[in-house]
What does this fold into?
Amino acid sequence: MTDLLNTLPDFPTKSYIHLIPSLEENLITTTDLLTLDAVEIAKRAHLPVLDVRRLANHVTAALQQQLGLSVNNDPSYTLPVAQGSKKETTLRKSGNDLSSEWTTISTLDYDLDTVLGGGIPPGYITEITGESGAGKTQLLLTLLLSAQLPSPHGLSKSTCYISTEHALPTTRLSQILTTHPILSTHPSPPSLSRILTLQTPDLESQEHILTYQLPVALARYNIGLLVIDSIAANYRAETSTSASTGTGPQALAHRSTELVRLGQLLRDLARNYNCAIVVANQVADRFTPLSPRASTAHRSIADHLSSSPLPGTPNHPSSSFLNPPLRSNPDLDTILSLDHQQRFFTGWGDTPPPSYSYQSSNPHFHPHSSPNPHHSSENQNLKTPALGLVWANQIACRIALVKELSYQSHTSGEQREGGDGESAEWAPRHWRRWMRLVFAPWARGVGAEDMGVEFEIWKGGVRTIQVRNRKEKEGSGWDEC
It folds into this structure.
């Protein structure tokens, strides 16, 4: 019962002081008290059945009161409410009430907000993932300023920036603040003094700050947005150098436990303090699996080797038992494989290459020559967000920022044809970036037929690129770093 006060801090334990020591001695938790029969608990703890049943009913009633579902309960089970406090019972609200109270933090761009379902809502963990230079930090800096604005752009609250890699770029923040038209002309402009910054150089300090210091800061400074940049830096550094957690499956199991605990901690902070938690995540390269033809050939070779021993090797009767022939359904194996499943939650692998728009709009495109040689169907630049599937289960929303090189011919932006009708040479001109909403409970994710919303980084933060503006930049040789 040591977890009872963590679940219900205001629970009156004085009435059950004669029961709790026996329950703790027999390792009976609050979950056991709610799920197991009172007779079974009484036998294990050697306690009266009626007292155990009364405690279980009191805990159930307290949880119902905390969730706003308290009906027809004993008045003695009612928990005391602090004077002046107002407990919100969200489970008693209708859908219209919740939609009317829906508030978000805007990206200060209409198209980006449309993709995100209005913006970044408080009370959830949102992840922004992408490779280096994709625009993660630029988007986070914009959110740090827009969250200070009143509705409908923000929450009229202060913000907090926790860095695990580098300090807060105040120079860039000042540039965004003075350049963006909404921020620079707003009657209640944001201020850099309302951004609380914390530094976590290692995993130990990160855990201490998130567990003890951050809850105090959220309540004292009325913080509406918490940014962690980035969430994977300390975990990747610690797990690759630390020898205390072991190697192989033992290290992965230890890291999975830490990630689940971190996700639970951040969700509690977001829900209890009604703040939006946005984390930046790194990515790793993902190698594409073998093609179906190669997989079939590999399976045929394996069947042949398992049924035919090597020359000079005695054909023992047990050889077929030790090396059984591989028999499986190729289609079923492909569907159940991680390479097929992770396209639905990583943000990479289910979209056409960026050159698809060029192929559909250029009448001179040859089917055997792609404008970008790196975007062939067998060689895509696939990425996987760090920390794996365990961390993906802890977040509510994932936003993927995709960065690709835009290729163009050397001859004034036109395709140079060879003697056989194929393109000759192509050179990169500038970076192109897309925002994709991978999953979120409040908005529809981008489908496989769409790359997402194309955006650019400019002095005022991030903004979407209209089709005509992109054509003008390509024609003028504009190059973006």
Notes: The two ends are 57 Å apart (CA to CA). The mean pLDDT is 77. The first strand starts at residue 125 and ends at 130.
